[in-house]
Amino acid sequence: MTALHPTTGQLLDAVNAGLRVHDLGRTLTVGMPQSPNHPAYWHAMPRRHGDMVRADGGSAANDMISMGTHVGTHVDALAHVSQDGRLYGDVDAEQAQVGGRFAEHGAHTIAPMVRRGVLLDIPAVLEVERLEPGQEITVDDLGRALEVQCTEIRTGDVVLIRSGWGQHFDNGDGDAYRGLSTGVPGVSEAGASFLADFGIHATGADTIAYEQLKPGAGHGLLPAHRVLLVEHGIYIIEALDLEGLAAAGTHEFLFVMSPLKFFGATGSPVRPLAVVGA
Questions:
Q1: Which of 121, 117, 116 is nearest to 147 (CA)?
Q2: Is residue 246 classed as helix, strand or coil in its secondary structure?
């Protein structure tokens, strides 16, 4: 019998000792809050129990779904945003999309993530329940969170930003969550640059578009997307459920996420996990 690699043994020992898993993904439901820029989620059941019954009395139901790749909890591929006709790595965006699929920078190129995760709980640091509509998460806010939480960001980390805005999703208040007229709190261009300078692998938030959306501005300008996706090749994860993780006071964890390998797609639905010792 081949001996286990020491690290593999340590991982299995950790599993045997007990782990707590925080599910950071949203349940996909018809009518859930989403950006109006993307096709809505739809679920249908073309075959129901009883439509066809086998000779032994058995029956099966099956269903189908349709949705945009940026609906529900999802990750943005590097093909999602261009600036001045260029994608990350100075790739020509027009040429890259010939044929209707991005062979380069598509969702299928996003490797599974098993990395150190960090939560920056901004409302906790500012001593509020949740941030205000359109409120900027500033560089000072991010730095203060690191200081108060005694947390550090390391190269290759996945950094998650809690604004408390996910409470609107939980409460079924889709209009407030979308914030098309009122705005949505989030990281600014300066905040995105601050995070990118750490050399992180990905970053995510509990909001619909990751970054600050000012009141009445809609999704017209997304400078943090430019900084992260185009200039630094850092993946963005949106519509995360961070309330349970924050309530547990967990700021460092093993982050696990595997996008679906949609060839050439600009994003993928995901179900991220934060794993800690029990």
A1: 121
A2: helix
Phi, psi dihedrals of residue 84, rounded to the nearest 5°? 55, 40
Instruction: Please provide the distance, in angstroms rounded to a whole number, between the alpha carbons at the two ends of the chain.
Output: 31
Distance between CA 38 and CA 61 in Å, rounded?
A: 28
Residue 39 CB neighbours (<10 A) = 12
- The string of pLDDT tens digits covering residues 77-122 is 999 999 999 999 999 999 999 999 999 999 999 999 999 999 999 9
Instruction: Say if pTM beats, i.e. exceeds, 0.90.
Output: yes
Q: Which residues pair with 159 in a beta bridge?
A: 118, 203
Other Cβ atoms less than 10 A from the Cβ of 65: the count is: 11
Q: Within 10 A of 75 (CB to CB), how many other CB atoms are there?
A: 25
Longest Cα–Cα distance of the chain, Å, equals 68
Any residues with CB less than 8 A from the CB of 145 and at least 6 apart, and which?
120, 121, 122, 125, 151
- The conformational region for residue 176 under phi > 0 = left, psi -120 to 50 = alpha, else beta, is alpha
Instruction: Give residue-wise pLDDT tens across range 209-242.
Output: 999 999 877 777 899 999 999 999 999 999 999 9
DSSP secondary structure letters along 80-94:
S--BTTEEGGGEEHH
Block residue for tokens 């993904």: 25
From the list 37, 108, 102, the residue with the least C-alpha distance to 75 is: 108
The two three-digit tokens of residue 111, written as one number: 């490797």
Residue 164, classed as helix, strand or coil, is coil
- Phi, psi torsion values for 254, nearest 5 degrees: -85, 120
The count of residues in the chain is 278
